[in-house]
Write a structure and sequence with these properties.
By secondary structure, this protein is of the alpha+beta class. The chain has 15 helices and 20 strands. Strands 1, 2, 6, 7, 8, 9, 19 and 20 form an eight-stranded mixed beta sheet that branches. Strands 10, 12, 13, 14, 15, 16 and 17 form a seven-stranded mixed beta sheet that branches. Helix 5 packs across helix 15. It is elongated and about 75 Å long. The relative contact order is 0.20. The model has no long low-confidence stretch (mean pLDDT 96).
Length: 459
Amino acid sequence: MQWDIEVDVVVVGGGGCGLTAALAAAESGLDVAILEKTEFVLGNTASSAGMIPAAGTRFQEEMKISDSPEKMANEILEKNKYTGDPEQTLRICEESASLVEWLVDQHDIKLSLVTEFLLPGHKTYRMHAPPSRSGLELMKMLRGAVRNRDNIYLMLKSPVTKIVFTDNNEVIGVETNTPNGMQRIGAKKVILADGGYGGNKKMVSEFIPEIADAIYFGYEGNTGDAVSMSAEANAELKNMSAYQGHASVSEAHGLLVTWGAIMLGGFIVNNQGFRFGDESQGYSEYATEVLKQPEKHAYMIFDREIYNQLLGIEDFKNLANFEAFHYSDSIEGLAEKLGLNSKTLKTTLEKYNDSVTVGEDEFGRKVLPKKLINSYYGIKIVPALFHTQGGLKINENAQVLGKNGTPIPNLYAGGGSSVGISGTRANGYVAGNGLLCALGFGKIAGTHAVKSIKKVEVR
C-alpha cells in the first residue's frame, strides 16, 4: 500500500477519548495523528459536567474516604442489574484512580474531589472534576496538553471514511477526506474514538426508539462511523440499546440543569403541577419519564438554600446569569410565574415536605435531604439523549473483538465507539460512566498500543 503519511498510531475522533488516547500513546515517543471530522475539538466530553468517577485516589485518601475498585464496580453492576460485563467493569474501575492521578500529575489537568453532593448510583464521594464542574473546561485542558506535544498531529475537518485492512483482516491504516483532498494514512495501530451514534437519527430510532423523540444533546459529529466502518472486519456489536439520557436540559438556553438540585432535595413536576416518580433513581432513566408527560416537558423545583449551593457549577451559574430560573417568596407565586396551577403545586410541595419527615414518599424515594422552605426556584426542563452506550465489543485492553471472539489486529475502541459499562438500558447508567469509559479506555488503548508496538509484555 502506498501511503501519503505514515505514523505509529491513528486516533479517529478528537473528543475526550481521542485526546486521552493520543496523550497515552505519545508520551512514550510514538508519532500520533488525531483525525477529527469537524472543525472543533469538543466531543461529548465538552457538553458533560466533566466529572470522572474514580476509586482509591489520593484525593479521596486526603478526605479520609475509603473506596476501592471492587466497591465501585459492584455499585455499577448493581445499578445495571448485572447486565454489564463484570470483567470490563472491574478493569475500568481498577484503571480509574491511576487515570485521574495521571491526568493531574503528567498533564496538568486540574481535578478535585466533588463533595457537594452524591450523584445517582454512587454510595460514596468519588467524582473528580475541574474547578468549574464543566466538561468544556476539561476539554480545554486536554487540548492544551495535546498542544504541548510535538509528536501529536491534530487534523481538523478530516473525517475518516475507511479503515484499511489486509486480506488477513489486519488493520494497517485509514483513509480520510482532508481539506486538501483524500489521504491514505498508514499506522501500526488505529484507535476509534468517534463518540457513538447519538447524532444518527436513523440508528437512534432503530436501537433506542424510546428516546428518539427527545432532543439530542451530544456532539453533532457522533454519527456511528466506527460501527459502520468496522462492519467490514466483522466486528462484534454489543448492548446497542444502552444509552445515557438526561431529564433536565434547559432547551431555551442550551444548558444542562444539574441533577445536584435533585440530590440536594429538589423535585420535578409536570405541567399540571404533579410529581410523577422517584427523581433520585437517576437522570438517565428519568428522561423517558419526562418524555411521557403532557407536552413532553416538566419543571424542576427547589429552594434558595439549594440554589446557593449550586452556584459554583458553571452551567448553573450561567443559567442564573441568564435569569433562566423563576423565583418567588411563595410557592403560589412561583406557580404563577411557571404557568402552573398554584393550588396543585402548593399541595405537591406540602406532600413532599411531609415525606421528608417520614423518610420516604409514595414513589419509594428515600433521598429526601431536606424540606423545601421559604424562597422557591423553578425552571422548565426537557429530556434529552446525551450519548449512546452500546457499540463495538472490546476486551479489557480496549481491543475491538471480531464475531469469532478474538481481537481484530491493531484495532482499538473506547468511549462511545465501544460498548460501555451501563448494561443494556438507560436505567443501568451510573453518573460518570460515559466520561470514565471515554478517558479510561482511551488511556488503556493508547498504553496497550505502545506496549504492543514496542513489543513490551502486555496484560
